[in-house]
Amino acid sequence: MSEIFSAQAVVLCGGGVAVRAKEKTMRTFLFQALVSLVFGFVFGVIGLFVGAWFGGNFATEVVFNGVRGYEATSQIGLILFALVGLVMGWKFMEKRKKKTH
Hints:
Elements lengths: L1 H12 L2 H42 L5 E2 L2 E2 L1 H31 L1
Antiparallel strand pairs: 1-2
Helix pairs in contact: 2-3
């Protein structure tokens, strides 16, 4: 019975309660996206250095994007690690969101 009254209250108030809930979900989504971007950036920087180390020591003949050796593998490392960081950041926030609810 109270659900009916609360639904009517939302309709009568112009949806103020629903708007607040929508703002909260938008805020959590933006926070999740921001954390994911931070993870991607941090992992990308790590990948840049790991790729440069690997290319300088082991993969000197690799060619990518017009460059060769450690420069090429550092770009590959940046791209791969940044993607991994984005996914890990998103999954981390999903898991955190499930714990809080």
